[in-house]
What we know:
Elements: E1 7-12, H1 20-35, E2 38-43, H2 47-56, E3 63-65
Parallel strand pairs: 1-2, 2-3
Amino acid sequence: MTRPGPRTILCDVSALDPDATTIDALARLQLSSRRVGLELRVRNASGELQELLAFVGLDEVLRLEAGWQPEQREQRVGVEEERELGDPPA
């Protein structure tokens, strides 16, 4: 009989704010998962959350899955491009 591989928890964090509460929750979830033999994978982390995880040193502990890249961000509504004063409006 073959032994089953580690079970994986996929955690979509796309709706979470990049703040200390999120970092604390992810760290606790990672620790709890490992204690019971599960593997946690974090999916769809924003660029800001990825940077914060790197800053606190958790980017090497949490398994971040590719999926959302900061370069793919949409422009915020109401933000206008800069232009020179002499340029005609677009």
